[in-house]
Amino acid sequence: xxxxxxxxxxxxxxxxxxxxxxxxxxxxxxxxxxxxxxxxxxxxxxxxxxxxxxxxxxxxxxxxxxxxxxxxxxxxxxxxxxxxxxxxxxxxxxxxxxxxxxxxxxxxxxxxxxxxxxxxxxxxxxxxxxxxxxxxxxxxxxxxxxxxxxxxxxxxxxxxxxxxxxxxxxxxxxxxxxxxxxxxxxxxxxxxxxxxxxxxxxxxxxxxxxxxxxxxxxxxxxxxxxxxxxxxxxxxxxxxxxxxxxxxxxxxxxxxxxxxxxxxxxxxxxxxxxxxxxxxxxxxxxxxxxxxxxxxxxxxxxxxxxxxxxxxxxxxxxxxxxxxxxxxxxxxxxxxxxxxxxxxxxxxxxxxxxxxxxxxx
Length: 361
Ligand code: ATP
Known about the structure:
The complex is composed of two ATP-binding proteins (PotA), two transmembrane proteins (PotB and PotC) and a solute-binding protein (PotD). By secondary structure, the chain is of the alpha+beta class. The protein folds into 2 domains: 4-229, P-loop containing nucleotide triphosphate hydrolases (Rossmann fold, 3-Layer(aba) Sandwich), CATH 3.40.50.300; 237-359, CATH 2.40.50.140. It contains 8 helices and 20 strands. The protein has helices spanning 42-50, 92-102, 107-120, 136-148, 166-183, 194-200, 218-223, 228-233, and strands at 4-13, 16-26, 31-35, 57-62, 65-66, 77-81, 154-158, 186-191, 203-208, 211-216, 238-247, 252-256, 260-266, 275-280, 286-289, 299-309, 313-320, 325-331, 346-350, 357-359. The strands form 4 sheets. A 6-stranded mixed beta sheet has the order 6-7-8-3-9-10, sandwiched between helices. Strands 11-12-13-20-14 form a 5-stranded mixed β-barrel. Helix 3 crosses helix 4. Adenosine-5'-triphosphate binds at residues 13, 18, 36, 38-44, 192.
């Protein structure tokens, strides 16, 4: 049985539908992420799971029990916010102890559990400090400790790493993965950062305008996006208008405008005559000097239009003969080398027969 079951949940604000008939099932022990652009309804959904807000229709079940009449403090759920929400006049230990005191736990038990919680977030000697004596990362760890001290069935995390700089954020991501693994608590994590969702989650629900576009494991979301929105929102991808000219069970043949025949893969149900786009990730695109490239399927001449060096890799933007642009990514494996091609170089781009994805919606 699912730990959390969201069934056909809808929430409207006047005539605006913020969450539109959403159904999601989260398993016990899962690190589940709600991912989507600003305003897509992630926080509204999280607030309804926590009990701070109620659906207009649909059900939210925890361990099979409908939560509709249960106030937030009676739900086996805790929320960690981006802003940490620590009490400034209380020590770290008192902040962490707060949910236990509210639950009427005995003094000795509180002391033991606060000690364990501080250990679990690697701040064993910080109990007597005040929040203003902590760094951003330490404050966030205290917020995690407070979220976990009452052993909730479900921990809700609303962009908890959003206020941290890139390096600290990566450190905290690794800590969060380890913490979740060690404690086995189910996490529902909200973010608009696709790299964070891919790095942390067992499964991701991609949301857009209040609906769920796709629920899948990170590698499937990235490699087999269900539609153009998911493809475009997660990672980089080039897209070109295409029509299906042959739909075999194992592959598709596409006619890409002014480029000719391209092989690709697509979801079940795609048929000859369907129109849409051929989408391809930059790391799937090979780029070489025109004369070096053997004549392969999915091989096209082009010209380097621009490039973007970011240290470990360089992305080349190649203009094809049909006027479309395609991105190709090359690792900078030779030390001191920022690029292999110059703007204006005549190049060939190619890709495996199954690297292109046909998307018709
Ligand atoms: P962000 O990443 O910016 O926090 P989000 O995906 O969490 O965005 P929500 O906060 O869930 O988005 O908001 C979804 C939509 O519902 C937005 O258009 C927002 O303006 C609207 N909305 C949210 N809460 C209310 C409210 N209390 N009253 C009216 N409209 C609301």
